[in-house]
Amino acid sequence: MRLFSLALGLILSWGILATNAFAAIDTYTFSSVEQEQQYRELTEQLRCPKCQNNSIADSNATIAADMRGKVYELMQQGNSKPQIIDYMVARYGNFVTYEPPVTPATLILWIGPAMFVLIGAIIVVLRARRRVEKETALSPQEQQRLQTLLAEQKATVKKQISAQHKKTNRKKP
User: Fold this and answer.
1) Are residues 30 and 95 located together in one domain of the fold?
2) Terminus of the chain with fewer CB atoms < 10 Å: N or C?
3) Is the model's pTM score more than 0.90?
4) Are 43 and 30 in contact (CB under 8 A)?
C-alpha cells in the first residue's frame, strides 16, 4: 500500500511539473535577427487585455500567449509592424496599445489633464487678485487711531518693564 501511494505521488507530482514547465515556453524560429528583434518590440508594445499592466511579452495569461502566437503568424505571412498593430487594435480595441491614438472618444483623456492645470491656474490668479483688492490703504482717521493704540501699547510695555526692573533691583542685597 505504501509503495502504491509513493508511486501515485511521484506520478502526480511529475505531471504537475511537466505541465508547468511546458505551459510558459514560447519557442519560435525566425529567419533573421531583425525579424526576431521586431517580434520582441511588437510583443513589448502590445498590452495584455487580461493583465492590463503587462505587455504580452511579460504576461503568462492564455490570451497573451495567443496574441504572441498571432504576432508570430502575421510576421511569417509578411505583414509589417503597423499592419500587425492595426490587426490587434481591430481585434482587441485601442486598449492593446500603450499609446492610444487621438480620437473624439479619447480626446478628453488627452486634453483633460491640461484643462485641470489651466483651471487651477485661473483659480489661483483670481484668488490672488481678490486678496490684493481687499488690502486697501487706511483712512487718515484709521491711521490716527492706529498710532494712538500703538503709543498706548508702547507706554504699557515700558511701565511693565520698569516695574519688573524695580522688582529685580530690590531683591539684590
Assistant:
1) yes
2) C
3) no
4) no
